[in-house]
Amino acid sequence: MTRPPAPPRLDFSFPSPRPRSRLRALQAFGLSLAALTLGGFAVMSSPGSAAASGLSADGLPRFTLLLAGRDIVYCYYRTPCRDQDQRTGLLQTPNTDTLMVVKVDGTRVSVLNIPRDTNVGPYDPRQTKASQKVNSRYWSQGPEGLADAVETITGEHVDAYVIVRTDYVERVIDALGGLDVTVPEGGIEWVDRAAGVNLKLNPGPHHLAGKEAVLFLRVRKGFGDDYGRIDHQKQALTQLAGRLKSAQGLAALPTILGGVGNGVETNLDPNLLTTLAPQLGKLRLSFATLPTTTIPGTFNLAADRDALARLWGPPGGASAGGARPPAEVPDENPTRVKVKIVDASGANLGQALARALAVLGYAHVRVEAVPASAEASQVLTGEDAGAATALADVLGLPRLQGERFPVEAGEVGILLGMDARQSLAALAPAAAAPSTRTETP
């Protein structure tokens, strides 16, 4: 863990959160990296029971996965159970507080985060509130029951599930070289002796090893609430998934492959995953959060299926080879789009990108230069996902939609990290040209 003398000013703070219940100290983070790290290299050596080829008539992969993260279970104070699959004698039962639906449609990989408090089906006042939350279904009904619950919530058919433990995620992050993060103003301090947690991070950039990285991604402080935590988990996944295309990612494969039976639970057909291999260099990632409304008198959330259809398209679009969802349809009039570029490239690429966007018709672009950051370059959006998708496609960057990203209504954010020196190298000559403008008229 390191801290440079001058912390960056990425200003990625989050607005005031909705009132939420307190997190349990041992909530599962479970980054669900198994499928996003080339999905499935983690399980390609294991026989599965999900029998689907995943190939459409055009030879491209199309399938939908449920990804869930669960914590390590403890039998005694600070003592993990020898058998991590046992269901009796536990100090605390595990929930799946990180849930994602991954829809692979050719070269597009769309990831939908499901908030842990989402109610499964209509709310029933005769049942306990906790028993109706989706994060409790893994313990009460097993992985198949959890998959059924996610199908009820989203309307998407789930072809297979991948469930990972946090200790597996730690190993994968270490194998991929750690995680670069920016801690918000005020810093982070999470001390829980009972759980063996002692995380203290000052504001600014840090390079975290696997154990600290998982703790950082479990904490809410500094990120608002559960939605803020989901949003910065998306940023971490974007960074880690990008590394899989490198030599370092290939070197990590033995660790990823070693997860089956040692932190990874799945029914995934390995043949399904091999369909991704020829497309790895072309995959385009996009992240979104399930739209929800609070159920009165509870902390439970009701899925907003109409809003989900606008954001993610109708259920079954990927596996059926349907049309691109509304959120993936590029905006035809860039003159209406406001763009905020946060330039952490360390190479003045923000100004060069602003000039390039002006040529493409983007009339409202502002640039903020901040200290160089190792965080991954990405396109950020709130509800204006269509406009963000257009920019992400042009730039070849992942698109992240969320509830707590610091973008205004009608605005798209672009974070340029140091990786943009390679991914957007074509901008380098323009970056050398002098310019003092920070916003196009």
UniProtKB/TrEMBL annotation:
Limits of the Cell envelope-related transcriptional attenuator domain: 95-245
Pfam families associated with the record: LytR_C, LytR_cpsA_psr
Species of origin: Deinococcus hopiensis KR-140
InterPro entries with a match to the protein in the record: LytR/CpsA/Psr_C, LytR/CpsA/Psr_CW_biosynth, LytR_CpsA_psr, TAT_signal
Name assigned to this protein: Transcriptional attenuator, LytR family
Annotated family: Belongs to the LytR/CpsA/Psr (LCP) family.
Gene3D superfamilies named among the record's database cross-references: LCP protein
Region feature (Disordered): 314-333
Chain ranges of the LytR/CpsA/Psr regulator C-terminal domain: 336-419
Domain of life: Bacteria
